[in-house]
Amino acid sequence: MKITTLDLKQDRQWSATIGMTRERFFILLDHFKNAYFQTYKTELSKRKVEVNIGYCINNEEELLLFTLFSLKSGLTYDALGVVCGMSASWR
Questions:
Q1: Using H for helix, E for strand and C for coil, what is the string for the chain?
Q2: Could you tell me the pTM of the whole model?
Q3: Domain range spanning residue 25?
Q4: Which residue has the higher pLDDT, 90 or 54?
Q5: Average pLDDT, stretch 22-48?
Q6: Residue 72 lies inside a defined structural domain of this protein
Q7: Are 77 and 58 in contact (CB under 8 A)?
Q8: Residue 88 has pLDDT above 70, yes or no
Q9: What is the C-alpha separation between 3 and 41, in angstroms, rounded?
């Protein structure tokens, strides 16, 4: 994924990109990781190996960042793909 948490340097960038500060993101990330593990009984990095599908999102941090960015930005899936370096798998 093209956008990472390392790209966000200031609270203004965090708020503009995902609607919260860095501190709140990492608090939410802890809860997100726990919920992901309770749902799938494994971490995303291990699960993507098990299902043998090529993912451009490598871990829970990237998944949460992508999810919040997509909700905040309101972009279509095709536009999100361009911005985040993803392509639709159906073509």
A1: CCCCHHHCCCHHHHHHHHCCCHHHHHHHHHHHHHHHHHHHCCCHHHHHHHHCCCCCCCCHHHHHHHHHHHHHHCCCHHHHHHHHCCCCCCC
A2: 0.83
A3: 5-84
A4: 54
A5: 92
A6: yes
A7: no
A8: no
A9: 27
Q: Residue 61 carries which side chain, given as an amino acid letter?
A: E
- Residue 91 placed within a domain: no
Q: 67 and 1 in contact (C-beta within 8 Å)?
A: no
How many independent structural domains does the chain possess? 1
Flag whether 90 is in a domain. Answer: no
pLDDT of residue 39: 93
Q: Residue 17 domain-assigned?
A: yes
User: Is there a contact between 1 and 85 (Cβ–Cβ < 8 Å)?
Assistant: yes
Q: What are the tens digits of pLDDT across the range 47-66?
A: 776 666 667 788 999 999 99
- Give the whole-angstrom CA distance, residue 12 versus residue 8: 9
